[in-house]
């Protein structure tokens, strides 16, 4: 069997290693440049590869193709593969056939990284043999090839879910759904919503779907579509009828299989309403996998959040600097601004993904004292907020953005990097953007 891997990044190289181990004839092709460390791994493992091109004669003879999530369906080589009827699948779909581990699959427009890390933390603290993969950490396929975990907690993007045929998580979480990546879905929000719900399409009556019961897109989809999995809703306002989690008297109440877990929200390590929901989702998983209540409680108290997600960097001259570089859409920024309790200098901008800034207006009016635009083209942001804040400045470098923010901030204020946009105009990715932000703060 010939396995062709499109994309020589973490998921691609991991898939190649697993494929080789399972006896496939493997070829890796990347239209961009493969990083030196990955080239080395491929060469050591005797795996053929090419970069900066796609050689059709070496690709279109595949039995199966694993496409990295960053490559769109519209890419010419992908179109040709689909025309030829060659299966194009995701890393998750390829790897799952080689493990009998239980998986917890987590998707959503926002909060999925935090929920994934928190779920992993709860299960690990509970003594389970658990791996962390998907959009985060080491490639799932690579771990299946080299490790023997009983459970995997997988962060799954819509792109990864688009490439599944048979994969099903035993427990699925949809944290929320809001417009994102619409450029990959013909600007049709319903296609994006359907993509998220692929996480439950193969689930059976023995499986579970945990979801935000207040989310309009989720509610509408569930009202119009049948699912087989057991529903486990969570909400800050609606009480669950039999199983699920809700908030009452500032306590999380989570009932799973008639077992009640309660915890005061002021003991949670993470702040903000959205993080109460993330904690509810992770708690439900821990209960379903029989983690002791005391362990869940301790783990929710001592968890340290995700890097680049509302990460408090430093306080300088009474000004708190917060790195939320992972906020690449409007909905993420909504959560960030909603959690701010001090006047805020907001650093925003990058590659716009079809953003509609209207829903941010009330929060910007209430909380933002100045805006620093950080991007090659800031026209849309300037047009949106010009009449809402008194001070707006533009820059195309992170160090200058941080210096400007420092000048605009006074003691007791916060400086928040929460870009609402992709990073590719000025940075490699959101991690690079977040690291440069932190470095610029250390240099002040």
Automatic annotation (TrEMBL):
Protein name: UDP-N-acetylmuramoylalanine--D-glutamate ligase
Record field: transmembrane: none
InterPro entries registered for this protein in UniProt: Mur-like_cat_sf, Mur_ligase_C, Mur_ligase_C_dom_sf, Mur_ligase_cen, MurD
Annotated positions binding ATP: 108-114
Pathway it works in: Cell wall biogenesis; peptidoglycan biosynthesis
Native source species: Flavobacterium celericrescens
Enzyme class per UniProt: ligase
SUPFAM superfamilies: MurCD N-terminal domain, MurD-like peptide ligases, catalytic domain, MurD-like peptide ligases, peptide-binding domain
Keyword Ligase: yes
Keyword Membrane: no
Keywords from the UniProt entry: ATP-binding, Cell cycle, Cell division, Cell shape, Cell wall biogenesis/degradation, Cytoplasm, Ligase, Nucleotide-binding, Peptidoglycan synthesis
Catalytic reaction(s) noted: UDP-N-acetyl-alpha-D-muramoyl-L-alanine + D-glutamate + ATP = UDP-N-acetyl-alpha-D-muramoyl-L-alanyl-D-glutamate + ADP + phosphate + H(+)
Enzyme Commission numbers on file: 6.3.2.9
Subcellular location: Cytoplasm
Stretches assigned to the Mur ligase C-terminal domain: 308-421
Residues annotated as domain Mur ligase central: 106-286
Pfam families: Mur_ligase_C, Mur_ligase_M, MurD_N
Family affiliation: Belongs to the MurCDEF family.
Function text: Cell wall formation. Catalyzes the addition of glutamate to the nucleotide precursor UDP-N-acetylmuramoyl-L-alanine (UMA).
GO molecular function: UDP-N-acetylmuramoylalanine-D-glutamate ligase activity
